[in-house]
Sequence to fold (452 residues):
Amino acid sequence: MNTPTSRRVGRPRAHERPASGLDPRDEVLGAAAELFTTHGYTATSTRTIAERAGLRQASLYHYFAGKEEILAELLEGTVRPSLDVARGLAPRTDAPPEARLWALCHSDVALLCGGPHNLGALYLLPEVRAERFAAFHRVRSELKDFYQELLAATAAGAALGAAELTLRTDLLFGLTESVILIRRADRDPGALAVATADAALRVAGVAQRSLAGLRREGQRLLAAGA
Amino acid sequence: MNTPTSRRVGRPRAHERPASGLDPRDEVLGAAAELFTTHGYTATSTRTIAERAGLRQASLYHYFAGKEEILAELLEGTVRPSLDVARGLAPRTDAPPEARLWALCHSDVALLCGGPHNLGALYLLPEVRAERFAAFHRVRSELKDFYQELLAATAAGAALGAAELTLRTDLLFGLTESVILIRRADRDPGALAVATADAALRVAGVAQRSLAGLRREGQRLLAAGA
Fold:
């Protein structure tokens, strides 16, 4: 959708935007998400991202300092909404910790499976170990702490020693994030979110007979916008 | 360990090998595993791999057609040994399917966590979707079929409908592979393998009271070299 005037130097203008109607900043994020997950992070240049977003490269730099900042924002977008959900669930002591754990896992899986691109696949990029991505690692680690806190408050979790609790949290968090590895076009994200949250409670040590009731409570918490 | 004679053109010679005493082919695989997981696949050239392996680039091409073939071999090495274990466990109908599932998961996690480099991180490379890696995808898919077959044979699995069985297999296989996401230097791979195999049985629907006995049977199967 480039017009001749889009070649003018300066701040991006409305007529540079593609037909999607998105904000140019969101256009850049969407284009980068697609390119990073299909062509690879290393192989994608800011020029290619700008082209895909219908902007000039200079305009892209108006919104982002560079490719790393775009990646950092995409990564944080895969964990921050779940951290917000966790913070909303933490004080809901009227609901059992098991139901809150179910709700957190469901919501987290729905986020990781939502959207057209498997952004979680970017977690394992060697580049992401760099200091530049400390904020992402911090948010992801805070989110994991909420899993641990909820697990420790469950009946089965309260019986675990410190080392066992850490290991069980690794497994719970790993199970949730494993949807990154199994996410496929032919799978229904809603069914996967429910099944994963159920499986998380099983891993936490919840007995089969309690599962249906806790799932209903978890769904109620989510419907109430916890 | 390059010596002046290592510059000669032709087949690689014994004196080109680094001090490790490994076969040059294995040197190439080891060097590539390190470089792909630390610098990234796209950013690594066959020249760099050859240098790290103590070979000339021409010698590397004596063993591998190129970078893709090296990656394909590394990827297949993360699934083929587990497929062999699965094939060994399948006919062991003297042991309950739950114990065999425990053994398969334990062995798979130990493989994925073994070795100095997290090769599973390479599963999510966009490049790996290419036809060139069909053999890896086929072996990984056969391995997953064994998980499904064992799960279907368990008491809880036998009660699942076809769609539920597929979904539950996704979760079991995802839980096993999730060690790729949580693999860290400060975690004991042995403890993680046991905990993940236990968690797999919980996800499969095994009751807490049966877990310890099935774990012992699973460990016996592995010790017997199933």
Summary: The interface with chain A takes residues 37-43, 118, 121, 123-127, 167-168, 170-171, 173-175, 177-182, 187, 191-192, 195-196, 199, 202-203, 205, 207-208 of chain B (CB under 8 Å). Chain B has twelve helices and no strands. Residues 1-16 of chain B have pLDDT under 50 and may be disordered.
